[in-house]
Specification:
Elements: H1 10-26, H2 32-39, H3 44-56, E1 60-62, E2 70-72, H4 74-85, E3 95-105, E4 110-111, E5 125-129, E6 142-148, E7 162-167, E8 176-181, E9 186-195, E10 198-202, E11 211-213, E12 219-229
Parallel strand pairs: 3-6
Antiparallel strand pairs: 1-2, 3-5, 4-9, 6-7, 7-12, 8-9, 8-12, 9-10, 10-11
């Protein structure tokens, strides 16, 4: 369950201002995607996270299963927006930046440059609210990969999405992991199953067959998926 913040971050404020401007200029509230575009948030999951917090704090109302079902609560949001114009300071929500270190194939294994698991660019990353991540994770063990392919679509992982990974070299049956096949320098994103002396890499797409690896020694687990970030342009 998301932690209720003690104050509002700049992103909370930007979202409230965006909703107010849309309602005043267009006569209806923005969609989640439109809020993301207006406030420079690249993930619908993160936008929804902030909207849930604003609702908990009494700044907005949301109607479930209704498109654009977001409304400001005048008594609280109206006063806040007036204060924002006067520069009232608020406490800042904790965000962390997870580095995007490369791409991962969600399809048949494909050759990739070795840098996909060793390259680190501090300017390339994705902002994540700390409370979206499992408690107790060592933040230095987290990294992000951009997904290519559609073998995991039934697991709500689509082409272009970003997966947040925890570094590990072990996997339990049924976990979604990044796999490196070291005999052919290929990577893939699949569900992992060790069974009968073999490894089965199972897609989440009924049109695709599992990949059976007879020699488990060539299968190296690179990380476990702990969060999926959907992209706005899908």
């Amino acid at each position: 369950m998301a932690r209720k913040p003690k104050g509002l971050s700049q992103r909370h404020k930007n979202i409230l201002s965006c909703i107010q401007e849309w309602q005043e200029e267009k006569g209806y509230p923005p969609s989640i995607r439109e809020i993301g575009a207006e406030t420079d948030i690249s993930s619908t999951s993160v936008v929804n996270y902030y909207l849930n917090q604003l609702e908990e704090m009494g700044y907005i109302e949301r109607e479930s299963n209704v498109s654009r079902g977001i409304n400001l609560i005048k008594d609280s949001a109206g006063e806040l927006l007036q204060n924002l114009k006067s520069g009232v300071s608020q406490l800042v929500e904790q965000l962390i930046t997870v580095p995007i270190v490369g791409n991962i194939i969600a399809g048949e294994p494909m050759p990739v440059p070795a840098s996909d698991f060793s390259y680190y660019d501090p300017e390339s990353g994705v902002d994540i609210a700390r409370s979206l991540l499992p408690q107790g994770d060592n933040l230095s063990d987290l990294y992000a990969l951009r997904v290519q392919g559609d073998s995991m679509i039934d697991a709500m992982v689509n082409d272009g999405d970003i997966v947040i990974m925890r570094r590990t070299n072990q996997a339990r049956n049924g976990e979604m992991v990044a796999i490196w096949l070291n005999d052919r320098d290929e990577t893939t994103l699949k569900y992992f199953y060790a069974e009968n002396g073999r490894v089965r890499l199972q897609p989440a797409n009924p049109s695709m067959q599992p990949i059976i690896i007879n020699d488990p020694s060539i299968v190296e687990v690179q990380g476990k998926v702990i969060l999926v970030i959907r992209q706005l342009d899908q």
